[in-house]
Amino acid sequence: MIKKLMGKFAFLAIIVGIMAMIILNYVIPYMHA
């Protein structure tokens, strides 16, 4: 059960991390412009 929870948490963390990277890639150029 704990392994399942850790797997789900890792999966969510990866998705959130990718989304954050994409958002930052779009936002940073506008902030520096």
Automatic annotation (TrEMBL):
Membrane-traversing stretches: 9-28
Keyword annotations from UniProtKB, A to Z: Membrane, Transmembrane, Transmembrane helix
Organism superkingdom: Archaea
Protein name: Uncharacterized protein
